């Protein structure tokens, strides 16, 4: 599977899990991925870390909206 396909699947899964529009998740994920990629010496886990950070941000923003 190509990296772009993995990114798309990750973005769609995060959007579905957090009930947020795909385009919003894509913007968050791409920004986080680019930021991490430019700092990383070892780039293997950048997509995993980016997904975790976006998931955390989405959960924090949805829990803030609920309260």
Question: Short description, anyone?
Answer:
The chain has 67 residues and is an all-alpha fold.
Total beta strands? 0
**Count of individual domains:** 1
Topology pattern, helix = H, strand = E: HHH
Alpha carbon gyration radius = 12 Å
Sheet of most strands: none
Total of helices: 3
Derived from helix and strand composition plus strand pairing, the structural class reads: mainly alpha
3D shape: globular
The share of residues in extended strands comes to under 5%
Give an overview in words.
The structure is a single chain. The protein is mainly α and 67 residues long. It has one domain. Helices cover 82% and strands 0% of the residues. The chain has helices spanning 3-18, 22-39, 46-66.
Structure keywords:
single chain, 67 residues, mainly alpha, 82% helix
Please describe the topology of this protein.
Layout: H1 3-18, H2 22-39, H3 46-66
Helix pairs in contact: 1-2, 1-3, 2-3
């Amino acid at each position: 599977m190509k990296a772009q396909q993995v990114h798309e699947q990750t973005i769609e899964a995060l959007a579905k899990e957090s009930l947020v529009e795909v385009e919003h998740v894509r913007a968050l994920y791409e920004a986080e991925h680019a930021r991490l990629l430019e700092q990383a010496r070892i780039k293997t886990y950048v997509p995993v870390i980016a997904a975790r950070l976006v998931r955390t941000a989405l959960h924090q923003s949805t829990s803030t909206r609920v309260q």
